[in-house]
Amino acid sequence: MHGVGWELMDMVSRSLHELDLIPCTAQQHPHPDFPTVKFPNPEETGALDLALKEADKNSASLVLANDPDADRFAAACKMPNGKWHQFTGDELGVLLASFLMDFTKTHSIERQAALICTAVSSSMMSKMIDRAGQHFRFDQTLTGFKWIGNRADDLSKQGISVLFGYEEALGYMFPDVSLDKDGIAAASCFISAAKSWALKGLSPYQKLVELYKEYGWHDSINTYFTSSDASITKTLFDSIRASEELSNLKFGELAISRWRDVTTGKSFGDWPFTFIDAGSQMLAFTVNDTKSGSEASFTLRASGTEPKIKIYLESAGPDSTAAQRMSKYTFETLVRVWIRRAQSEIKHSGRAISSLGQTIDVPA
Question: Which residue has the higher pLDDT, 290 or 48?
Fold first, then answer.
């Protein structure tokens, strides 16, 4: 995307996969002004529009994309109804993890294999690993590849093979290549996975649905609110810590089954991993609907570089309708009970879109 990735990606595709990629010529070469996009990040709405049009023109069913420095990877898949599904970072992480785990099983690799993600990434990979048995190990870190890479290095020194690490913001690490996110390696792995699934008559999207049917449907809402001042942000987090909901373990109609305060190190309930980062503002919660059996987890984190309060929310349910209902109710309750009640100065763009496609209007 107006960056340095095309020549290397084209070479990798030809030499490793015998595949000729079709470039999106308007975004193929470096340009310091990134003239075709508002912001050169494949996550941003509209950033892949030109590539999707190019794919339609050439009857292609997959779109692959890197950001300008090619350390992040995005993909979209044409669905049977002719519409495009742009995968979220978590969806791609789950798909790549599934492929690598299947590859490891097929090739009878003997060492214990670890897969790592961050605390704000999907819970789905851990569920896959739990069912896979003792050959696989799940690990979790704070947000950022300095944490993921260092953890992978530590595990490798213990004789544990680290297959993969990812964070939800389209970053994917393959330790045999690099202890950092690598968009070219991720694209190459995804091509191998797509070819493998195609032999079974599955597109990448159909493979994702297959995984949802096996491990539960997951719907995520990753969005942010803006705060004009650090003191306002701190007031919000402190008000949540002192809230009646946290004391009574009730969140609207939902029960709070666990929470943790990464800033102070305090927690309630079972958390397999413990993190403390006193220099940040970060709170995490898991809530349950005892009637439907659905659950949701969400994290509020103050950005260290921007005036943003980031929300990472994921629900899980027996079907897509239940998952979407749970994510919508949890998000709307979070906004109404904690964010709007605490601070009117905290703003939102007005709309949040979930990974399963629902649009939620957010009061300004």
Answer: 48
